[in-house]
Amino acid sequence: MKKIDEIKLPIAKEMDEFEIRFKQSMKSDVALLDKITYYIVKRKGKQIRPMFVFLSAKMCGGMNDSAYNAASLIELLHTATLVHDDVVDDSNERRGFFSVNALWKNKIAVLVGDYLLSRGLMLAVDNNEFKLLGIVSNAVREMSEGELLQIEKARKLDIEEKIYFDIIRQKTAVLIASCCACGAVAAKADDEIVEKMRQFGEYVGIAFQIKDDLFDFGNSEEIGKPTGIDIKEKKMTLPLIYALSKSSYFEKRKIINIIKNHNEDPQKVKEVIGYVIKSGGIEYAQKQMEGYKSKALQLLNEFENNPARNSLEQLVKYTTERKN
């Protein structure tokens, strides 16, 4: 599997330029706000989303200002949702650093999220990027709906596989789908190509989320995060849903009781993990993930072979073979 820096090569120059533009798009005259946005920029992640935008644009026709606007718009709106998520989840950490709400409290975090959202909207309006704005605004709506659907279902723990896929399509896949669609729109591709790229991103996003689900049952030393977190948070992941679908009435009742009432007990959580592994939940989820990965790669094969397409292929493989 190639490293992120190797995958970035066809767009390395563009990613450097993006960093400058993205910082600029967050600027404010309010000193406190500037301090917080500087803190956010400093602890950025792998920047997978801008990579999807730029590689999609390059593959579909080429880079231009619209592609930079698309990447900044998505990253601003995505960062806003993360800041708000940390408030909703009462989370004190994000990527190993203190979250905004941990350092500056909830009220400020909510306002910072609102500010980032408005900066994204203004960036699109100021540059007449209304098609991009439509795609990304729709993504934010779907992400909110997916989150609420998950909360609603978590209360009863009655998620079936179909609902699970609805949730992850809305919560995770829609954002990667937007990146790819926006890249194609920026490159002035026709509607058919834009839709193909959106579909490609959706497949990648679903595979990405299933991979995240699998981490919860893996070796915590190898992946660098403790296992059983989703169980503690009462999240119904694909391996667990599959295991429950194969269990007897009494087994199902026992497992659901542990998740509802004993999710803080490490031994009980371990019991659930062991049950899922024994039931073939891991193999089933891996098979599903590989299926979505294959669908994504098949769609890519319909495009002309070039460095951007090769990097997109590597990015798809990276999302399903990563260790964290």
Description:
The protein is mainly α and 324 residues long. The protein has a single domain (4-205, 290-321), classed as Farnesyl Diphosphate Synthase (Orthogonal Bundle), CATH 1.10.600. The chain is 77% helix and 1% strand. The protein contains 16 helices and 2 strands. The chain has helices at residues 4-7, 12-26, 31-42, 48-60, 65-88, 100-126, 130-156, 161-186, 191-215, 220-223, 229-232, 238-245, 249-261, 266-278, 281-300, 307-321, and strands spanning 93-94, 97-98. It has a two-stranded antiparallel ribbon with strand order 1-2. A hairpin with a 2-residue loop joins strand 1 and strand 2. Helix 9 packs antiparallel against helix 15 (281-300). The radius of gyration is 20 Å and the shape is globular. Residues 219-226 have low confidence and may be disordered.
